[in-house]
Amino acid sequence: MLRTLQTLERQASSMASLRGMSAVRMYSKQYAKPVGGASSYEVPNFEENLKPNRNSDANRNLSYFMIGSFGLVTAITARNTVQDFLTTMSASKDVLALAKVEVDLANIPVGKNIVVKWRGKPVFVRHRSQHEIDEANSVDIKSLRDPQEDSDRARTPEWLVMIGICTHLGCVPIGESGDFGGWFCPCHGSHYDISGRIRKGPAPLNLEIPEYTLDGDTLTVG
């Protein structure tokens, strides 16, 4: 009987031990990492974070493109501005052609005027007679509104060259007219003598003398 009881106790103890081991194995399998075995723990994947950001690269490339395009447009605009400036500063052939005008004096009879165009302005050329030269030199300079000797206005006594614009308001005077045998402005009644000096009327100054040269029978204005 005693042996039977001892045998039963040993069997019960063995069964209890087996139940405890099974419980440990079940717990380990579900909730713990087995030592020395394969792990069921999933390591986070950081690969996406390590890859280059394609959107960032695209934005950077767009920025480079915009900066380059702006620089190109600025360079082209600057070049065009410089070209326009140089074109404006450079006189064209037409402008150079009008800068000087040549006149053949051999075709102008004594006592007559001709009018030529120079830089858009009328220029009076008068072939004066000796009588007209003497008359111009006989004037009392002190009596003139704009005192000027005839010799200061005509480099060669027989040739008088003037810009044909009234010094009052810019009208064109009429030749061989007026109270002093020279030019008369019909706009406001200014009278100029045979030397182109203002003698009567509202004009404040004498008719302007342009730059010119005389070479024989050739007059070059400008």
UniProtKB/TrEMBL annotation:
Listed EC numbers: 7.1.1.8
SUPFAM superfamilies cross-referenced by the UniProt entry: ISP domain, ISP transmembrane anchor
Cofactor note: Binds 1 [2Fe-2S] cluster per subunit.
Family: Belongs to the Rieske iron-sulfur protein family.
Membrane topology field: Single-pass membrane protein
Domain Rieske: 127-221
Principal location class: membrane
Organism from which the protein derives: Starmerella bombicola (Yeast)
Protein name as annotated: Cytochrome b-c1 complex subunit Rieske, mitochondrial
GO molecular function: 2 iron, 2 sulfur cluster binding; metal ion binding; quinol-cytochrome-c reductase activity
UniProt entry tagged with the keyword Nucleotide-binding: no
Enzyme class: translocase
NCBIfam families in alphabetical order: Rieske_proteo
Catalytic activity: a quinol + 2 Fe(III)-[cytochrome c](out) = a quinone + 2 Fe(II)-[cytochrome c](out) + 2 H(+)(out)
Pfam families found in the cross-reference section: Rieske, UCR_TM
